[in-house]
Amino acid sequence: MPEPQPVSRFEVADRAALPDDLRERYDAVEEKSGFLPNVFAALAHRPDEARAFFAHHDALMDKDTPGLSQAEREVVVVATSAANDCLYCVVAHGAIARIRARDPYLADQVAVDWRKAPVGPRMHAVLEVAVRLATDPAAVVPADLDTLRGHGLTEDDLWDLGAIVSFFAMSNRLAHWAAIPPNPEFFLLGRVPRG
């Protein structure tokens, strides 16, 4: 086993000293998943920013809409995070995508090459625009949104897609900046049925 990496290049707050609301949230996340994702620990030293980060994350990711299921939202995160070379987000959200999609292979296929991943035409169009927004935002044009509308995305779906890509562009950069490593637990989640 390799030596554990530090959770962040920056100070990691003592969990016992966190404000009650964050400590309760972190305890609930750890109880549900069996571990505390490193991003929670890394962001804890700035409680107001941690609260805002997780509130924005939840508003974007914890819903299903006609054009973007929770699983598809996670697949978008995997594709765009891979395009941004963010190991933490690819591994962490790959695990969530495997669980939500009930597919142990899809996240890895998307991370390596979303163009060849076994997704339908609608999701292929979504990923094409999402990855372009993540890597070359000025190249996204009105025709791209029209294409997505043609695949059944609503105006709310379009907004969500842009907001998810933008939010995770920030998250990718924070993970790079702080050198947040993926938790070892993420590598196995969703790969084999729970026993």
How are the secondary structure elements laid out?
Blueprint: H1 20-33, H2 38-43, H3 47-61, H4 70-83, H5 87-101, H6 106-113, H7 121-135, H8 142-150, H9 155-178
Helix pairs in contact: 3-9, 4-5, 4-6, 4-7, 4-9, 5-6, 7-8, 7-9
GO molecular function: peroxiredoxin activity
Keywords: Oxidoreductase, Peroxidase
Domain Carboxymuconolactone decarboxylase-like: 47-101
Summarize the structure.
Keywords: Oxidoreductase, Peroxidase. Pfam families: CMD. The protein is mainly alpha-helical and 195 residues long.
Structure description:
- This protein has two domains: 15-61, Single alpha-helices involved in coiled-coils or other helix-helix interfaces, CATH 1.20.5.810; 66-188, Up-down Bundle (AhpD-like).
- With 195 residues, the protein is mainly alpha-helical.
- It is 62% helix and 0% strand.
- α4 crosses α9 (155-178) and α5 runs antiparallel to α6.
- The model has no long low-confidence stretch (mean pLDDT 96).
- The protein is built from nine helices and no strands.
CATH fold annotation of the largest domain? AhpD-like
Q: How large is the share of residues in beta strands?
A: under 5%
Radius of gyration: 17 Å
Report, as a whole number of angstroms, the end-to-end distance: 24 Å
Could you give me the name of the CATH homologous superfamily of the largest domain?
AhpD-like
Give the number of helices: 9
Alpha-beta classification: mainly alpha
Envelope shape? globular
Q: Which segments are poorly predicted (pLDDT under 50) over 5 or more consecutive residues?
A: none
Overall tally of structural domains = 2
Pfam families: CMD (PF02627)
GO molecular function, one term: peroxiredoxin activity
Domain Carboxymuconolactone decarboxylase-like: 47-101
Keywords: Oxidoreductase, Peroxidase
